Amino acid sequence: MQTKLPKVGTTIFTTMSQMANEYQAINLSQGFPNFPIDPLIEELLAKNSKENVHQYTPMAGLPALLEGIAALVSRVYQRNIHPATEILVTAGATQGIFAALQALVHPGEEVVILDPAYDCYDPAVHLAGGKPVHISMREDFTIDWKEVRETVNQKTRILIINNPHNPSGKMMEESDFNSLVQVMGDHPNLILISDEVYEFITFEKKHFSAHNHEILRNRSIIVSSFGKTFHLTGWKVGYLIAPEYILKEIKKVHQYLVFSVNSVAQKTLADYISTTDVTTLGTFYQDKRDRFKELMAKSKFELLPSEGTYFQTARYKAISQLSDVQFCEWMVKEVGVAAIPLSVFYEDSTDYRTIRFCFAKTDETLVQAAERLCRI
Q1: 39-273: which CATH architecture?
Q2: Residue ranges per domain, the chain?
Q3: CA 322, CA 288: separation in Å to the nearest integer?
Q4: Sequence-ordered list of residues with C-beta below 8 angstroms from that of 37, at least 6 positions apart, any chain
Q5: What is the pLDDT of residues 188-240, one digit of tens each?
Q6: CA–CA dist 181, 128 (Å, integer)
Q7: What is the H or E stretch that residue 75 is in?
Q8: Confidence (pTM)
């Protein structure tokens, strides 16, 4: 059978997690927390499971949740959005990105992707009949805006950014957004997908969002994730915010892709979203980042700056000359810790001998992992 995605196989996340299970290794590879969710969410879920909320919600989302999201955006970003026309609740951020690309990209149109990039972007562009155009960031994960300006052209339909950035943990500066605004201004038909699923997991630096820029938000699809924000990754609930003229096209795909998202989860999140302060999330994860950094201080790894997300990148040049994929396989088998190689996030498999750890784990897990890593 001829495949539509000849370059796609088993994802590195699945591979490393399977290896971690096989070799009884500590899994710091896949990006999911291993600690309990907020007890209040558990209580609300139990309560709502007994209520009459088990049928389809409206396609775009439960009205109470849409209103809660609008209120959250107003509190955090001082932006007023219309709940009924500018928000779409999705079955996870990945489904939202897929629906957006399917709705907006026509055969032959280009989508600019900044590498290293989350692995769902490229296949979704291919399936839409578009052409992914990859631009590599510099080795320090900063963006070469001169190359972006030289690459974007009349065929470019969408530019995708990811801030805070997975896998690097890097955050865009205000100067980056000034450059982005210039690119958008030079290309009036260009649409931005701003993947901001880690928007509330930020540390010392301020998070600059497409919400804060009028030029951007009027031509942007902003991607958010309840799974990341409330460490509910298994619930697979995210949302898109975009102007009505863009979102109405995405809804056309969404309604035939999933139609609507889990009703009990939506009701529970609607009840919870107004009671919690998302601005404290950064402090929670910053403590974990600092704890892991402290535990790794005597290791031979070079820890790179982690400004947001719950990922810590590390160079191992002082340890081995193996490729990053080979090194991660060796670590699972011989050290008992699973990580993710960064080369898999590059279209051309660029290898800077850098790997990614997830520190969204209990202190016990981080201590045990660091003890093993420090023995290398």
Answers
A1: 3-Layer(aba) Sandwich (3.40)
A2: 12-30+279-374, 39-273
A3: 29
A4: 230, 231, 232
A5: 999 999 999 999 999 999 899 999 998 899 999 999 999 999 999 999 999 99
A6: 26
A7: helix 63-77
A8: 0.96
